[in-house]
Amino acid sequence: MRTPERSVEVTQVTEWAEGCARPVQDSLAAEEPLEIRIGDTPLTVTMRTPGDDLELAAGFLLTEGIIETADQIAELRSAQSNPGVKSNVVQVELQNASFELDDLQRNFFAASSCGICGKASIEAIRRRGLRQPDPDFRIDPEILCKLPEILRSDQAVFRRTGGLHAAALFDADGELIVLREDIGRHNAVDKIVGWALLQGRLPLSRNVLLVSGRGGFEIAQKALAAGIPVLASVSAPSSLAVKLSRELGLTLVGFLRGRRFVVYAGEFRCIPAGSHGQLTPK
Fold first, then answer.
1. Ranges in the chain, pLDDT < 70
2. What pLDDT is attached to residue 102?
3. 171 assigned to some structural domain
4. How far is it, in rounded angstroms, from Cα 146 to Cα 142?
5. Can you give the pTM of this predicted structure?
6. pLDDT digits (tens, 9 = 90+) for 251-278
7. For residue 181, which of 155, 147, 207 has the smallest C-alpha distance?
8. How many domains does the chain contain in total?
9. CA 49 to CA 183: how far, in whole Å?
10. Counting beta carbons within 10 angstroms of the beta carbon of residue 277, is it exposed (0 to 12), middle (13 to 18) or buried (19 or more)?
11. Residue 27 falls within a domain, yes or no?
12. H-helix or E-strand containing 56?
């Protein structure tokens, strides 16, 4: 269990309960902007929970298709102007990476401000050459059902604040490999992918990714970029995440709670053959 530095802030609040008000000390999930720069040029700004910033930046570069391997990162550092002053900037020096920085900046602005057509989104992912994750990977449904409780029990910052999303990486035996927390579930996923990239563990072809909240399109495309075969969430997926998963061969699981889950794509990885009953109308 780990609580990254600067991920929690303490404040004074007033609590009202059963007709009585009293001052108490409360813990808040920290939220600060992180600017990612390529060289001296700003690429994007994301609101995140401080901690694991280098992993976040590395994972973002890979899952957004700017780099494909860790070797393309020549240098990765926090741009701290004054000693003792916290940095909200990560500076990256790239090598052997082909991209137009102006186009990237425009794309990230458009994606965050107004959204893009679903068909165009999936086509853009396909053009990146992402392949179907390992078709031979399997996970027992009974093991899959145990993962949310493991995730909850290891969320150190969530227990203090109640205000964070989490992403966790498991192996086929249900062993927790790594967990990251953030105010944005997409940031938590990027932190995990960045960790794997910097550790030389990609592709994550024998792993399951579990996220708190819903499984959206952005999470699905990040899982595919990392080679993850199974993406599960405790809530619902979006329609575009389902379409992307079905087209590119990702196993997508939603409503993973207790001893129940719903498979929206790629059921062969988590539903044993011969275990189907009759179709039940909803």
1. 1-6, 80-85, 100-119, 155-163, 277-282
2. 64
3. yes
4. 7
5. 0.86
6. 999 999 999 999 999 999 999 887 776 5
7. 155
8. 2
9. 6
10. exposed
11. no
12. helix 53-63
Domain-ending residue, one of 64, 93, 127: 127
235: left (phi over 0), alpha (psi -120 to 50) or beta: beta
DSSP per-residue letters across 146-214: HHHHHHHHT-HHHHHHS--EEEEEEETT--EEEEEEESSHHHHHHHHHHHHHHTT----TTEEEEESS-
Residues that are catalytic: 114
Residue-wise pLDDT tens digits, 12-28: 888 888 888 889 887 77
CATH number at residue 114: 3.10.20.10
Boundary residue ending a domain (127, 157, 192): 127
Continuous segment of H or E residues that includes residue 239: helix 239-248
CA dist list (Å): 279 to 76, 181, 276: 52, 38, 8
- Tokens representing residue 155 in the block: 């969320």
Cα–Cα distance for residue pair 233/213, rounded to 1 Å: 6
Residues 177, 236: one domain? Answer: yes
- Domain range for residue 184? 141-269
Measured between its terminal Cα atoms, the distance across the chain in Å is: 40
Q: Are residues 95 and 155 in the same domain?
A: no
pLDDT in the model for residue 79 = 84
Q: Are residues 150 and 262 in the same domain?
A: yes
